[in-house]
Specification:
23 helices; single chain; about 475 residues
């Protein structure tokens, strides 16, 4: 284990992260909202911590191994969650505890969108902007951004990229060099963000709200600058823009890159995962809209379709924006939407959940096992897009699913042990591990009323979801520390 190299990289990354305090500091000065001291102090604290780690080992130049990459990623995300809470703790927000501040910070960085804060409409603009910025940075992963910068500082990035990138297939690179891959991802990410902000503004949002919501939309985060989320605007065109960009952000960014590079949409049409993703969104939207109309929840078919489609896309992509309190919708709809978040977005997207490709492979594997019961000697390959999947990939998907379910059950039981009811514990675990945000029961509106112990557990759940379970759990195994 290259501990000194890990310390050096962690110090560099924290120094880079301290710069994220600059934009909200500028916003605070512009609006004169009185929060500038919190951000300037936070910048100094995080920068000093980064320098304290970096200076003693600044001359280290050893190459990272894969195990080192896992440790850097986990340490960095934990450090990020803690240091990201500093401006919140130094602010004048009433009644904010350490658990609240860390929860809000981790929720933003993991693009979960679960919040403990109320009264957003009266909050200083710079604090609102900071929350949105955390989600935007976490969306594609600050590690991937750092991969594009660290080679200039003498640090190899492939190990970090493989440890952090979401999805079951981590070795596929868009370009021959990992630095160029990271840059390509961020160019696409930035381009979508700019397009989303412009579309929101043209739809009727002010520039502050347009930029803030574009950060959360493309990151599939769900934080809003208003307590009523997207419902605050009551604008169908704003909702259309949100649906379009939430859907785009849930697509594998490698497909966006291929389409941009080839100037063709054929890559989209040929992708099995994308077809499944679109089909699931369409089916969920139809079922939700039809039931809302038939149950009389909304007076007109147009209103039922408007809210049904928006909420289906928002929850299924794990964004978490709301236009109405879906937790109060009749019968099975709230649970149906929550279950949809388990599927989430495509691999290589900013979405959470299990990922569509994993669910597709699990379905195909289940179908193969049924066929084998009828024809025990049959050799039935699992194909995706006409290509047979290697047994190693199928085994990894099953291993991930089993670990996910076991971890989910343990966290849910731990939450219930704190006195939380079953509905709240189940939905809170699902919403945090799937990086969705809003749940059911006592966490339908916000997470401010649950206990501190539960908030710390859910912080772990959010990190597990963002790092796809294995990245965090692998460092807890004895095998990781041997050799």
């Amino acid at each position: 284990m290259q501990l000194t190299s890990i310390q050096r990289i962690l110090g560099i990354l924290l120094c880079l992260f301290s710069l994220t305090m600059v934009p909200p500091l500028a916003v605070s000065w512009y609006y004169a909202d009185g929060a500038d001291r919190a951000f300037s102090s936070a910048l100094g604290v995080v920068l000093a911590g980064g320098l304290a780690l970096w200076l003693p080992v600044r001359r280290e130049r050893r190459e990272l191994r894969l195990r080192d990459g896992f440790l850097v990623v986990v340490l960095f995300w934990v450090s990020l969650g803690l240091t990201g809470s500093v401006p919140l703790l130094l602010s004048d927000l009433p009644g904010l505890t350490v658990a609240d501040a860390v929860f809000e910070s981790i929720s933003g960085l993991t693009t979960t969108g679960a919040t403990v804060l109320v009264g957003l409409d009266e909050m200083p603009p710079s604090m609102l902007f900071y929350r949105q910025l955390l989600q935007w940075l976490g969306g594609m992963g600050i590690i991937v951004l750092a991969v594009a910068v660290l080679p200039m500082l003498g640090v190899g990035g492939m190990q970090l990229y493989r440890a952090e990138t979401p999805g079951p297939i981590k070795d596929t690179k868009l370009t021959p060099r990992i630095t160029e891959t990271a840059k390509a991802l961020w160019y696409i990410y930035l381009g979508l963000t700019i397009a989303c902000a412009l579309a929101y503004h043209l739809a009727g949002m002010g520039w502050f709200d347009a930029v803030g919501h574009s950060f959360a939309t493309v990151a599939i985060g769900g934080f809003s600058t208003h307590d009523a989320s997207i419902g605050h605007f009551g604008n169908p065109m704003v909702e259309v823009v949100a649906v379009v960009f939430m859907t785009l952000a849930g697509v594998n960014f490698a497909l966006h890159f291929t389409a941009w590079q080839s100037r063709s949409t054929r890559g989209y049409l040929a992708d099995s995962e994308l077809r499944t993703y679109v089909a699931l969104l369409a089916a969920l939207s139809v079922v939700t809209s039809a039931y809302l109309y038939l149950s009389g929840t909304f007076d007109t078919l147009a209103a039922s379709v408007r809210h049904g489609v928006f909420q289906s896309v928002s929850v299924s992509t794990t964004t978490g924006f709301t236009t109405a309190g879906y937790h109060a919708w009749p019968s099975f709809l709230p649970v149906l939407l929550l279950f949809a978040s388990f599927v989430g977005g495509c691999a290589g997207s900013t979405g959470g959940g299990l990922k569509v490709i994993r669910v597709l492979l699990l379905f195909k594997q289940g179908r193969r096992e049924i066929l084998r019961l009828v024809h025990p000697n049959a050799i039935v390959p699992i194909k995706v897009g006409g290509v047979s999947m290697p047994p190693r990939v199928v085994d990894a998907v099953w291993g991930f699913f089993a670990t996910y379910v076991a971890t989910f059950a343990l966290i849910m039981l731990a939450l219930m042990a704190t006195g939380m009811d079953q509905v709240t514990a189940f939905s809170a675990t699902a919403a945090c591990m799937n990086n969705l945000g809003p749940g059911l029961g006592d966490v339908a509106a916000h997470y401010g009323e649950i206990g501190s112990a539960a908030k710390w557990m859910l912080c772990v759940a959010m990190l597990l979801g963002r790092l796809e379970v294995f990245t965090l759990l692998v460092i807890l195994s004895p095998t990781f520390w041997r050799g």
